Amino acid sequence: MAVAFTNPSIETCTSLTKPFRPSLSSKNPITLKRFSVSSSLSSSALQMEEQQRENGPVVLQRPDCFGRFGKFGGKYVPETLMYALSELESAFQSLANDVEFQKELDGILKDYVGRESPLYFAERLTEHYKRPNGEGPLIYLKREDLNHTGAHKINNAIAQALLAKRLGKKRIIAETGAGQHGVATATVCARFGLDCIIYMGAQDMERQALNVFRMRLLGAEVRAVHSGTATLKDATSEAIRDWVTNVESTHYILGSVAGPHPYPMMVREFHAVIGKETRKQALEKWGGKPDVLVACVGGGSNAMGLFHEFVENKDVRLIGVEAAGFGLDSGKHAATLSKGEVGVLHGAMSYLLQDEDGQVIEPHSISAGLDYPGVGPEHSFLKDIGRAEYYSVTDEEALGGILFTFNLSSSVQLTQIAFKRLSRLEGIIPALETSHALAYLETLCPTLPDGTRVVVNCSGRGDKDVQTAIKYLQV
Ligand SMILES: Cc1ncc(COP(=O)(O)O)c(C=O)c1O
After folding, report:
1. What's the CATH code, domain 79-90+114-475?
2. Which PROSITE patterns has this protein been placed in (predicted)?
């Protein structure tokens, strides 16, 4: 399936403020996709409503010419990176209509990644959530876990590696938390003959040891980061430091819809294939759209990849599930959209876990891929305008979604119900990140009318998490 781009161009820019002109102009301006705002309103949306009264219907680009989603996003970076970001944006825009690039990308996604990924009807999981009267939702899994390297991350890594080649950059850096983005990046670097350096928190290296080995086997250098909590935030900071120093020779394959513009837009577009396929497959399978989409949210790339295609279909509910760690009131969680305040991290304005002085609060999640104090700016925007809903799930509930039995005495009842679900009911061991989305079904399903079609993004497979899970298991 062709990967279509929907990013703004200078010609079509309708920013509420003055237009931004990238230093390198695009040869191939592309059509802007517009988004009508009419959902529940926050302050930025209220501003738009006011404009609408004055000027007629307001359409909003996502992002606008400044790389902003409402007040979120932007480019809060040192001067040294501004040129590289403009260069990247221009390259991305010019590739949007580049037939050769599209052909190459489509071919690799098909023959190397294994797309399209199936939309699988989870019959026994559906049965599990039936109410005593036989009614309940129908649950489908979008099987990104079946992609080469075992997660959605490769969609973006492949496309950015091709972009780097076009930019003539042979040195690739990336950050990783769960190691899935690191493995995806190491894989594409091996495939295209690029030098690869992966920054990873020392704690994450321990809990995702299997992926560290995979990256090294693929020829990447894995650099341990010991600062802070030695997790994803710290790895990202270190990768940005490297990029500032080596920007001439290096492309930074950022692994989520986070960071400075154009990354949130670009990474979203490279993952939008997930939602596009889902629409097509839903049409083939039941002749309609899904009613509810559910995905876990760390930085937010798998969720945005699934949601993007449906943002304008207001009859499709979009649900993101964050990591509540030890609980929302424990102070040890990664539920940025539920508990954060607006701030700036890693080059973008978004919701952020921070204290009263604006210092970043160290997050916690059992899942390395969700253990991040920030979130992609578009999610903050979708939350504020009320288009997407965000909830959270604890470590314990998420583990319940993944494997066997385990010994956490405080809520044995809960885990007895929740644990083993996907593994035992469907023969699919999900990643701990994905397990957060799956665990939310416990809360969601009893509230849904009979026959509601729910698509859960099965963002990755759980092989990498067995080491972590074993610590909690009693088998
Ligand atoms: C399998 C899987 N799912 C989800 C995530 C979370 O990232 P994102 O929110 O960008 O999809 C990760 C991150 O490493 C992951 O490995």
Report:
1. 3.40.50.1100
2. TRP_SYNTHASE_BETA
